[in-house]
Write a structure and sequence with these properties.
This protein is mainly alpha-helical. It is about 85% helix and about 0% strand.
Length: about 300
């Protein structure tokens, strides 16, 4: 009986929480109903930004549905395409990869319908779809889709699309443990990223550098790694982005070179600036390597 009561308690608590979130949605809708057109869309986006990283998923999903309905009323391509990428990113942050696999093909068809296959968001959505195939262990589909994406980008001589395709293929090679092919794809992607000035590519560009640096350090090609780390840090400085990954790369590099005092300095820096839930696991692993290297 205790177990039945416990299950019922959790079930009822969940229903209450869901009901409270729906009431919250209804309240927000009343407030936002006073706006019209583009201003209404702007208010929806502000609300989505506010709820994007919290746990009120019922509220957030409904806000996206309402935003989609409003953008369709206006019929403007840009108004419709903006929310699509962010909705997929929301699913990605919540590990809802099956939902991305279900939704992304419809969004790609939307871009094709408007003859906008050369748009950066088209390739970003394509990338998220393929990553979701990798996460759901459908490597064959991931390969086929990546080859198709590269073929499209190459036919249009779209360097951004080609760079994203090559970076995507490097992820597939990593999953297949094909390190030489992975390195080649990363280098080709980086060369292309360097010739495309688009802030929307910064995250993938930085990740490509990070992956290549990690590969070179692990392979003990330290001179090459150091050269690539300098280029990566230059990119981060130019974009005025946080330097957390630069510091972690230096930490890993100095562990590999046996300079444990320098490694510990970077580890302490990251301890002080990153939230515990973000850094705790990696920080502990790095510290173990430092202590082991010292024979402690």
């Amino acid at each position: 009986m205790k177990y039945i009561l416990l299950i019922m308690t959790f079930f009822c608590t969940g229903l209450v929480a869901q009901k409270n979130q729906q009431q919250h949605v209804d309240s927000l809708r009343k407030v936002i109903s006073q706006f019209e057109g583009e201003q209404k869309i702007s208010e929806y986006r502000k609300l989505i930004g506010r709820y994007f990283d919290n746990t009120m998923d019922t509220v957030l999903f409904q806000l996206f549905d309402d935003l989609e309905a409003e953008t369709k009323k206006l019929g403007d391509f840009d108004q419709q395409r903006i929310y699509k990428f962010h909705r997929l990113r929301m699913y990605h942050n919540r590990y809802m990869f099956d939902k991305i696999v279900e939704t992304a093909p419809k969004y790609l068809e939307f871009f094709r319908h408007h003859e906008k296959e050369d748009h950066i968001d088209y390739f970003n959505i394509y990338y998220m779809l393929i990553k979701s195939y990798i996460y759901t262990h459908d490597i064959e589909t991931a390969i086929a889709e990546t080859e198709q994406m590269y073929k499209q980008a190459n036919a249009m001589q779209n360097k951004a699309g080609m760079a994203i395709s090559l970076y995507t293929m490097s992820d597939i090679y990593e999953a297949q443990l094909r390190t030489e092919d992975q390195e080649k794809a990363l280098r080709e992607a980086i060369d292309l990223f360097e010739n495309v000035d688009d802030i929307n590519l910064f995250s993938l560009f930085a990740n490509a550098y990070m992956s290549l640096c990690n590969m070179l350090i692990s392979d003990k090609r330290l001179n090459e790694a150091l050269e690539m780390m300098h280029k990566y840090e230059k990119l981060i400085r130019h974009a005025e982005a946080p330097r957390f990954n630069v510091w972690e790369l230096n930490l890993i590099y100095h562990i590999q070179t046996g300079e444990y005092d320098k490694a510990e300095m970077y580890c302490d820096t990251l301890d002080n600036v990153l939230p515990l839930q973000v850094w705790q696991t990696n920080g502990s692993i790095h510290k173990i390597k430092i202590y082991a290297g010292r024979g402690q």
